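User: Okay, second chain of the day. Same drill as before: sequence in, structure tokens out.
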Amino acid sequence: MKNRFEDIDVVILCGGLGTRLASICHDRPKPMAAVGERPFLDFLLKYFIGQGFRRFVLCVGYLADYVKDYYSGHEFRNYLTFSQEEELLGTGGAVKNAENQIGGDTFIVTNGDSICPADLRVLVESHLNAKFEREATILLSPRDERIDCGTVCLDGEKILAFLEKKSQLKEGFVNAGIYAFDRKILSLIPPNQKYSLEREMFPLLIERNGLYGLTTTAPLLDIGVPERYNQAHSFLAGLV
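Assistant: Same drill. Structure tokens below.
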């Protein structure tokens, strides 16, 4: 029996430069940084596949051929398509660039350099089954000791604001970098331009009362800096 998540496209952002991790993976995109003998992106894909997702669009840019060559003969290759940027377009621009490869009315976007081991099916169900139509639902993870991300200000499930990183609150929730989107948000992104989901789209959606959050107790791991990259092996052990 077909599961309802097989036709939900998962757009994975893999195209950034990853300058803060350059000392570790200067020869490859950041999501391809090795964790043991496998790239981090393998673990992320396997986690989504384990939850029933089967369609992935990899948004590649920087050293795109490294990603494409690696997955050309991979066990996951039949689940993957690629959307390549000729110049880096930012998180929103990359999603817009992949528009023709995204099917259906609902899709997921996730950062390719982070993982939050929540039940992502709950995120999709929350987005689809809300009492009123949502444009976007963001997965929110408990804040930890990191100071390079802002805290989310919530009213119930509605997101009111993203507090600045410098606020350094010790409690609350942070953006886990996983989003359920209504396809209509693609019309908000200008084509062939640099555009940020976090700095441009999300404030616009807050103004439209269209941005919501789903909180989870699952921790967030991102490998954007060497200290957290060094935690990846122990974090991922036994996860997938």
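The helical segments are 22-25, 40-50, 64-71, 90-97, 120-128, 197-207, 226-229, 232-236.

User: Thanks, on to the next one.
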